[in-house]
Amino acid sequence: MDFSIAWQKLNEIGRDLMRALPNIAIGVVIFVVFALLARGVRAVVRRITRSKGKNHSLSLLLGRLAYVAMLILGLLVTVTIILPGFTPASLVSALGVGGIAIGFAFKDIFQNFLAGILLLLTEPFKIGDQIKYKDFEGTVEFIQTRATTIKTYDGRRVVIPNAELFTNAVTVNTAYDQRRLQYDVGIGYGDDIAQARALMLEAMRETEGVLQDPAPEALVMDLAESSVNIRARWWVNPPRQADVLDAQDRVLEAIKNKLSSNGIDLPFPTQQILLHDQTEVVDGNRSRQREGWPAGKSNVPPSRADAQAEAEAEAQNANDREPHT
């Protein structure tokens, strides 16, 4: 077998490698320099973003992006030095259709990534805020490039894609320092509304945690089936869920005790069932038939039995008055 051709190829590869060794060495040095420079740029970006008052997640993200961008630039420069015939334009043309295919395959990932960057930049909510999204409500733990993690009030973790949070409505319960709470209290129709409202306002003002400015309110909201509903409204600070529940517990207890101690009725829903007496003589006559309602001062129609007995008695009396032949 003739190995001369293979030996010749190996010699050429060796000579080419020896000629490329200086370029490889320079390229490695350049890449190391860019790696060190990337670390410095990452530190500078984090320091600048923190000094501007940006949150920690945004600082980490921008620092990471700057680090990766410097590494990619260093890799391109290194490859260009080692392979003089290589240019970034040739890399872009080589990607071609493959890059488009990759873009479609990772469309959702890129969408969530961009949404995460926009959430960190615009800051509609921050880490530590309590938010509500659809059926999920809790405290924001992390805002990452792909998803946001919240811890629910019952101790569960929910991971929500950033694209959903960016394109849908999100309620931020802790966006402001104060939060208004409300609850409807029903009193009896026979009770004095003005007195009940004054007692409710007094109870709210005396409750710990209820702000005096804005002042509590008591508004008549509904004339319901069994009660007159008065809406109690009060403000608390801070607006976190634990404080909200504590304040509501104290306010409702105070209102209930205050109203009960002053003789205000707190009725529960009731229904009155009226049974129609079908034995009355007027039953079937819609103009005179009673549907079980009290007669009041009017005359109550006699029952059929009484009417029949009266008719028989009158007939008997008539027979007795007739002369006998």
From TrEMBL:
Localization per Swiss-Prot or TrEMBL: Cell membrane
Transmembrane segments: 20-41, 61-83, 89-106
Entry keywords, A to Z: Cell membrane, Membrane, Transmembrane, Transmembrane helix
Membrane topology: Multi-pass membrane protein
Gene Ontology, cellular component aspect: plasma membrane
SUPFAM superfamilies per the UniProt record, alphabetical: Mechanosensitive channel protein MscS (YggB), C-terminal domain (SSF82689), Mechanosensitive channel protein MscS (YggB), transmembrane region (SSF82861), Sm-like ribonucleoproteins (SSF50182)
Chain ranges of the Mechanosensitive ion channel MscS domain: 108-171
Annotated spans, Disordered: 282-325
Residues annotated as domain Mechanosensitive ion channel MscS C-terminal: 183-265
Low complexity compositional bias, start-end: 304-318
Ranges annotated as biased composition (Basic and acidic residues): 282-291
GO MF entries: mechanosensitive monoatomic ion channel activity
InterPro entries assigned: LSM_dom_sf, MS_channel_C, MSC_TM_helix, MscS_archaea/bacteria_type, MscS_beta-dom_sf, MscS_channel_2nd, MscS_channel_C_sf, MscS_channel_CS
PANTHER family noted in UniProt: SMALL-CONDUCTANCE MECHANOSENSITIVE CHANNEL (PTHR30221)
Family: Belongs to the MscS (TC 1.A.23) family.
Name of the protein described by the UniProt record: Small-conductance mechanosensitive channel
